[in-house]
Amino acid sequence: MSSSSPQQTGSSVSAFLSTLIINLIVFCVFVIIFVVAKRKYHRVYEPRSVVDTVPENLRTEKQPKGAFSWLTMLLKQPTPYTIEKVGVDGYFFLRYLQMFVVVGLISGVFLWPILFSVDATGGGSSNGFDIISYSHNTHKWRTFAHLFCSWVFFGCVMFVIYRELVFYTSFRHALQTSPLYSSLPYSRTLMVDNVPDDLLDTAAISKLFPAANKVYIPRETKKLQKMLKKRAKLAGKIEGGVSKVLCKAVKLRNKAEKKHKPIPEPADDIHAYFKDKKLPTYRDKPIIGKKKQLLTDGFEELGDYNQKVAKLQSEYPDGEHKKQGVVFIQFPNHMELQRAYQAVPFCDQLKRSRRFTGMAPEDVIWENVDVGFAVRNSKKTAASSLLTATIIYWSIPVAVVGCISNINYLTSKVHFLRFINNMPKKLMGIITGILPTVALAVLMSLLPPFIRKMGKVGGCLTVQQVERWTQQWYFAFQVVQVFIVTTLASAASSVVPKILNDPSSAMSMLAQYLPPASNFYICYMLLQGLSISSGALAQLVGLILSFVLGPLLDKTPRKKWNRFNNLSAPSWGTTYANYGLFTVILLCYGVISPIIIAFVVIAYAMIYVAFLYNLTYVNDHSYDARGRNYPLALFEVFVGLYLAEICLTGLFVMAKNWPAVILEAIFIGFTVCVHLYFRYLFEKVIDTVPMGAIREVDLGESGAYPVKDLGRKQIKIEGQNFFVDADSPNERKLSDDEKKSTNSAGSSPTAGNPFNESLNNDVETSAGAAAKKILSPTSFKGRVKDFFHPRRSLGFQYARSILPARWMEACSKEIADNVDYGTPEVVADEPQLWIPRDSYGLSTHFIENADGKFSLSDENAIVDQKAKAQYTGLPPDYEPKLAY
Predict the structure, then answer these.
(1) Where are the strands (E) in 606-661, listed by range?
(2) pLDDT confidence of 756, banded at 50, 70, 90?
């Protein structure tokens, strides 16, 4: 193999040094901003401590003194505290980061001594980082070191995936059987789509699922939806317009008093301050609509909307409006919900139906509720095709970015680029190091909103489903664009001149130059680990929104109240996909260029610290997915494994080490088998709770939880035996004990059910009795033994032991009873408008004009001495968040 040129090495080293220096400077600046600003701006840096509307159980204590004392405090907190404060979804994302920090450290300790010595003495003439990469090795048979190291490395990763899937499944079962979660209405409600017309009836559903105590069948509300949107738009214009003229009027009066000019009279008449043509106007249709007076015509029109909406709402649910093909079935307890959930796949009439549970009414994508099976499939196909095409054509700008990282290699053949060779090394380092990584980050940030929109177009029914869709597609974008296209573009651009001179050497040269392409990812990891993580701590966006955009954009009490009280929340689909790419880079280059392990570990560790802080002190909890994005991310790790193994196989082919090629191909087959086996083991039990888990919790039956298969057999048997009437296989009959269970959320039928005999035969003794405390072994030998027995050490009992104490109590009656899965448009309330109160009676005059038409209030809001709207308390339509 030919060696790297001095120019190549110089470029890679200068790029690394330039990237390191610039990112270190950015890191230091951001950290200084964080340390200094967080002492003063508590709303930006610890809103979970100062915002009164944050639910009590999510509020955090004031941070201890010291720039980073919070980190020590949080790292010392017990797991239940972390789970409660950051949420289940946040906890599992932190666990994901933490897991690969540990994987990276252990793999580095194992791989570096072997591979560094093999590669460094490989006989090549490379310099810089390339000396300790695969490209420096010129000895054919030394590649066996890379082969066997990859086996150990990838095998360890697969075992870690297995451990984490065992833990997540056990945790999910323990979570959903906890007193709090099992009592939530979301845990007792089943949504089924693609329901045939003959089942869209309360009596038919009750016959199929007799334990159900509430059945909601949404109806078509397109006309009502359209009117509600118009009403909301007009209400927003009125609220903003009235607030604006109030502040202007007070400003004019203050100015007149200050300059001793005539004061507008009467003080409470807006026409004394403005001529009619100066008062706010609106159009009922954009551009072509007739211009109307907002403070007169708008008031009348909003009143008319309220009457029309109320009339339409009164026609539901007994009107002739079309029933939509979805039903929401609420059960008296979690056990009956699980029975029905497990039975749906075995119902002939619901063969095409999907089933969902754990979603709040606000989590439902209501515009997709009325989409049938055929239409949904066609829309999903169209959305997937469009995203696939986007992946293909997005590779063009990404390839350009990849070429920039090695642009100096093209100058020898592309003559108009030769001026680049005259640039100073420091500037060249910035161009090839900083510019590509920043450009790539910007390119990829444009995609998530588009992918999320395609998820809704494609027929996703819940926000949780949309986020999983986003995670899958954005991860695909990341792998294809940021890894495959960028790597190939970077590697290909570095050998273009030699390939042009000798086309037959194309494959061998790409194999040689693929490892040096890791230099781009070293720069990428520096950007993510130093600049991005510190930027997340510095909260620059929060500072800008609070002190620049906020004062410019927020002119009404409601907007200012929302700005202060509404906390941002993470989007887990985007977040997992972003950092899942790091894992792909770690796996693919861990053997080819092992030095990258250090930079990936640093990036993961720094991002872990940033997320630990923000999830505890800054971010709100988003939709509750109960950690469901985590197992999806674990299965996505196999993508990195496949790519890494294929890359190694290609390198062995180029080295003509055929035994290594065969052995690596066998290992690829082994990886496929492991992947399929994990899917077989876990996919059926992740979203479903076996009856043994409920029995063990509700009845205290020690050993009822099936440790051996995590409940897979129990789930299958329960579903098969749900419909017990031989004459009517899709008609469900309750046993006497089950009838009793419908009257008590905590009772569990244990007799008269054909499931029980199979259950008793299948149950295997769990790690300990439900009342016993789970003790971790203190000896090193015991910990090692537990590591290799995750069903025992990370099982159901352990998962229950780390749940927050607050979750050992059922939810409040307010939460349990005040959740309605009826069509939201049918129960939508009239908007309550909020304006500031002035001292001259103008706001009172507006309220009198609105009386009988719509609700207008000036409570808890004022126009201050500077003639600006301010809120002094809660909005008139405020409802406390039902947190659990």
Answers:
(1) none
(2) very low
**What are the CA-CA distances from residue 814 to residues 559, 823, 881 (Å)?**
28, 20, 11
* φ/ψ (deg, to 5) at 715: -60, -45
Tell whether pTM > 0.70: yes
| Residues contacting residue 410 through CB under 8 Å, at least 6 positions apart | 403, 417, 493, 496, 497
* Distance between CA atoms of residues 635 and 639, nearest Å: 8
Whether the Cβ atoms of residue 542 and residue 43 lie closer than 8 Å to each other: no
**How does strand 832-834 pair with strand 291-293?**
unpaired
Residue with tokens 């072997």: 114
Question: DSSP states of 355-400 as a string?
Answer: EEES--GGGB-GGGTT--HHHHHHHHHHHHHHHHHHHHHHHHHHHH
Instruction: Please report, for the chain, how many H helices and E strands are present, in that order.
Output: 36, 10
Contact indicator for 209, 340 with CB cutoff of 8 Å = yes
d(CA 460, CA 306): 31
Nearest to 469 by CA among 397, 352, 331, 573: 573
Query: Are 433 and 526 within 8 A, CB to CB?
Result: no
Token output for 275? 């001529």
What burial letters (b/e) apply to 123-158, b meaning 16+ CB within 10 Å? ebebbbbbbbbbbbbeeeebbebbbebbbebbeebb
The residues that bridge with 291 in the sheet, in sequence order, are 283
Tokens, residue 483? 């890894």
Alpha-carbon distance of 606 to 539, in angstroms, equals 15
Residue 128 backbone zone (phi > 0: left; psi -120 to 50: alpha; other: beta): left
Q: Which residues contact 866 (CB under 8 A, 6 or more apart)?
A: none
Instruction: Tell me how far apart the alpha carbons of residues 21 and 14 are, in angstroms, rounded to a whole number.
Output: 10
Q: Where are the beta strands (DSSP E) in 826-878?
A: 832-834, 855-857, 861-863, 869-871
Q: What is the pLDDT of residues 847-871, one digit of tens each?
A: 999 999 999 999 999 999 899 999 9
| Percent of the chain at pLDDT exceeding 70 | 83
Of the candidates 319, 233, 222, the residue with the CA atom closest to the CA atom of residue 282: 233
Angle of CA points 605, 611, 615, to nearest 5°: 150
CB-side neighbour CA atoms (13 Å) of 570: 29
Res. 727 pLDDT band, cuts 50 70 90: very low
Strand partners, 837: 862
For the chain, how are helix, strand and coil distributed in percent, rounded to 5?
65, 5, 30
* Residue 167 identity (one-letter amino acid): F
Q: 670: burial class by Cβ within 10 Å (0-12, 13-18, 19+)?
A: middle
Query: Exposed, middle or buried, 607 (CB in 10 Å: 0-12/13-18/19+)?
Result: buried
Q: Please give the structure tokens belonging to residue 144.
A: 């066996």
- Please check whether residue 12 is in contact with residue 129, taking contact to mean a CB–CB distance below 8 angstroms: yes
Q: How far apart are CA 302 and CA 284, in angstroms?
A: 11
Q: Yes or no: say if 679 and 632 are a contact pair by the CB < 8 Å rule.
A: no
- Cα separation, 581 vs 558, in Å, equals 40
Residue type, 690: P
Q: Max CA-CA distance within the chain? A: 99
Question: What pLDDT, in 10s, does the model give residues 789-820?
Answer: 898 889 999 999 999 999 999 888 877 777 88
Q: Which amino acid is at 871?
A: Y
- Rounded to 5 degrees, what are φ and ψ at 353? -90, 145
Upper half-sphere CA count for residue 447 (Cβ side, 13 Å): 31
* CA gap 473, 391 in Å, rounded: 9
Q: How far apart are CA 702 and CA 790, in angstroms?
A: 19
**What residue type is assigned to position 189 of the chain?**
T
Cα distance between residue 464 and residue 474, in whole Å: 15
The structure tokens listed for 827 are 């129960």
Cα–Cα distance measured from residue 195 to residue 459, given in angstroms and rounded to the nearest whole number: 15
How many Å apart are CA 401 and CA 482, to the nearest integer?
10
